[in-house]
Amino acid sequence: MTLTPQTQRWPADRAILFVHGIGNAAVGDYRPLVEQVQALLGDDAKRFAFYFLYYDQINDWFAAKLQAGALFEKLIGGVRSKFSEGNGAGPAASVGLGNAIAEFAGDVLWPVLLADARTAIRTMYLNQLRRIVRDGEDAKVPARRQHVSIITHSMGCFHTYEALGEAAADKGQGLSPATWGVRFDNVIYMASPVQLIRSVARDIQGIVPSRETLHCASGGALALPSEANVSGLHIPSARRTVSITGNLDPVGGHLMRSRLPWAYMEFPNEATFEPYIDPQQIATAGAGEDVTLAGLLQSALRDGAAPSITPHNPHDWGAYIARHADQLKSWLTA
Amino acid sequence: MRRVLAAAAGFAWAATAHAQQFTITDILDSLQRGAARVNFAGADPIAAGKLDSVAHLLRAAGAGSVKVSTLANVIARRRVGFAEANRWDPRATDLLAQPWFRDAILLLPLIANGSLQPQLDGKVPNKEADGILAPTDSLRASVQDNAMQQGTERLRRLEIKYGSGSPQLNVVEATANFVFQWLPGLRSGKDGSPSRYEFLAAYRTMEISAIKSSRSLPDAELVSGGQVGLRWYHWGAGWGAGSARSQQLRPRYASAGLYVIGPADAPFAKLTGVRRRHGVFLGWGGVHVAWVFESPQRVLVGGDRYLVPHLF
């Protein structure tokens, strides 16, 4: 069994769970990101237990079972060969691109179209949350006084939303906010595709199995995972839910600085929800200025050389964390 | 005595909350003690009224001595053992199986954590609040333990069916198994456990065919064959694990179904045509044995490995 939840001794009453997004992450791959958060926390970092949910192994099961890597390789092989004609790229490049596309598509497709894939990642996630709560209790911190935050990126937002939705809906999980008092200080979504997946899943609902278990697609509108107490008061799983995206990040519901309502995740009228949309640049020149013709000319004249242009990945997790370092510290240490 | 137990638990909360076998009476007593401590009826009359109602209901049903481990099984909808139930009341099995009973016991932590705990917060010292909530904390821990066990078992089964070393699916199988997600009996369980069945439809390029001959040894040749049937996975511990030899003896899956060979006895031959021949097969792990009962009758042996992805 290789899906054992991470467990550790808490140094104090706080923990952070990181949940990564699209890709093929292996244990340890996101250590630099954890170090980035440790750096922004400063001395406070010593009070936290850091957890990381690596779930790509499950996506890999389904990709291998359905021979998806080879399928995508076949589908795009012809197109790829056209692009690679004359530029020296060989079959290896085609295989690599095919596998990359299979991973990307698979990460999104498996949980939506295969009920077992959805269950597998969600079960792994819920086991990890239970383990975190129990680790806290082992450190003599009752669940109601634990300060647990979740920082998640890209597809990790979808898995987080689904796991919290299941935790709130199924009391048998032992994690619901009203019945069991398990609440998270912060759930911080970065570049969340939850609304995008909801829109697509509802458009293709006829081919989504066990649709009732896909929390993001249920209900009249996307809602914060919550549970009502006996008086009917809804208690959210998170005391604070933050959504951060960039105005150039398509996964977060923006296309060339335009918001796409069908793809942008928001929870209007929820007091515990805080949305942030970062202004982003495709590239910067010289010392971080926007790329403009005037700026490039000034840079070239100033330096006496060709201007340097640095392209930016609008979906980069580390960049989101860097831009909100002060807020993160404030939220996590509150 | 029970009040003393609950109060004591509050002072050594982490060490005892999960080990202590609290009962429904302990939960009710501690919640009513907490309610009295913060004037719950004045602060949240709806929740306080429900606490009184459910306490009356459970006590009247004689359920006071049911332990949290049993309650956790009821919440997880696990069948409660005869001995476990009869230990407190001969009517227990009936009572525990009734839907209202599960709803009633779930009201207790909902009142405790969703309504009473916010009232206790800041009004009574943490240690006292921990003592009041210790029985319901113990119930949560038992529910989490159950859920963890069930989750781990579910993941183990999913790994058997989908993990490394499980049979790959071709296009036809992938499509059929996608549709199976809607079919009762073949789709995943309500609790999310995978179905142990999987549709199998394969073209086998080279099967070893043996036909009885006039000589002492049967005539053997390579032919191609087709399978349509079901694969089922062994969930038992130890199946599909261990050394290569033990995996052959106790593989992660078996299969059975219909078998067909084409008009020509040759490898890589087509299976369609009026003179195709039919039979049945049984598979044990990656090896299958088929019997074609149309003349000439023959036995075939083959493997499950695909030579060309998606096809055969």
Main sheet: strands, sense, barrel of chain B: 6 strands, antiparallel, barrel
Number of strands of chain A: 13
Beta-sheet strand percentage of chain B?
15-25%
Question: Low-confidence parts of chain B, pLDDT < 50 over ≥5 residues?
Answer: 1-16
N to C succession of SSEs of chain A: EHEHHHHEHEHEEEEEEEEHEHH
The parts of chain A where pLDDT drops under 50 for at least 5 residues are 76-98
Structure explained in plain terms:
The complex is a heterodimer of chains A (334) and B (312). With 334 residues, chain A is of the alpha/beta class. Chain A has a single domain (14-280, 316-333), classed as Rossmann fold (3-Layer(aba) Sandwich). Chain A has ten helices and 13 strands. Chain A has helices at residues 31-41, 56-65, 68-84, 91-113, 115-138, 155-169, 194-203, 293-303, 317-323, 325-333, and strands at residues 14-19, 48-53, 147-153, 184-190, 226-228, 234-236, 238-246, 254-255, 258-259, 273-278, 283-285, 289-290, 309-311. With 312 residues, chain B is of the alpha+beta class. Chain B folds into two domains: 2-156, no CATH class; 171-303, no CATH class. A six-stranded antiparallel β-barrel of chain B has the order 1-2-3-4-5-6. In chain B, a hairpin with a 5-residue loop joins β5 (287-292) and β6. In chain B, α5 (45-60) crosses α9 and α9 packs across α10. Mean pLDDT of chain B is 85; it is low at 1-16. Chains A and B meet through α2, α3 and α5 of A and α5, α9 and α10 of B.
